[in-house]
Design goal:
By secondary structure, the chain is an alpha+beta fold. Helix content is 25%, strand content 32%. Strands 2-3-4-5-6 form a 5-stranded antiparallel β-sheet, sandwiched between helices.
């Protein structure tokens, strides 16, 4: 089932998400719905807060980067993962810029600096525990989705000047004044329930 993508301005996007356990209700169905939602919106990642739930879960399928024909991204061809209760335990290497966007913040793309390497602990959808190192674009996509479960958006990592330049776009998105080809859930207006 395709879920609405939560738009910028919704409070769930600012919550530090909670760990879950194997008994989380209908987890398999929710993960399947996240994949459907992500693919429907042509995303490479989706975090649970973007689907309206403040839990430590995100999905990534970086294959679209490999399909762009870039030799450097060939290793992402089969990079499809579910991350549950993820924790970044180490960040290292030089920070590098990459133009990021977000399904929650459509039509806004900006260069964001992130470290080139991370080490992460997480559970997969089968509740197998992993400690794994990620580099380059894989580390970038993971850090972007990881920020979501920490209540951080990529726009928070921009300079004060960049934030001022996109403020009008962000306000428009929060008011539902955006044209996208996927279903979105916009913040409730005061007095409406």
């Amino acid at each position: 089932m395709i879920l609405p993508v939560v738009a910028y301005g919704d409070p769930v996007l600012r919550k530090e998400c909670k760990d879950i356990d194997k008994d989380y209700p209908k987890l398999d169905a929710f993960i399947a719905n996240m994949w459907d939602t992500m693919y429907n919106a042509n995303g490479v990642g989706l975090a649970a807060p973007q689907a309206g739930r403040a839990i430590r879960l995100f999905t990534i399928d970086a294959n679209p980067f490999a399909e762009e024909g870039e030799e450097d991204f060939e290793f992402l061809k089969d990079f499809k993962r579910v991350f549950i209760n993820a924790e970044i335990i180490e960040r290292r290497g030089e920070e590098w810029a990459f133009n990021e966007g977000c399904l929650t913040i459509p039509d806004v793309h900006e260069d964001v600096f992130r470290p080139e390497t991370i080490v992460m602990e997480y559970y997969d959808e089968n509740w197998e525990f992993h400690t794994e190192e990620f580099n380059g674009l894989a580390a970038r996509v993971i850090q972007h989705e990881y920020d979501h479960i920490e209540g951080i958006l990529f726009t928070d990592r921009l300079s004060s000047l960049k934030k001022r330049l996109i403020k009008g776009k962000l306000t428009s998105i929060s008011k539902g004044k955006v044209d996208v080809d996927y279903n979105m859930r916009f913040p409730l207006k005061k007095g409406r329930q």
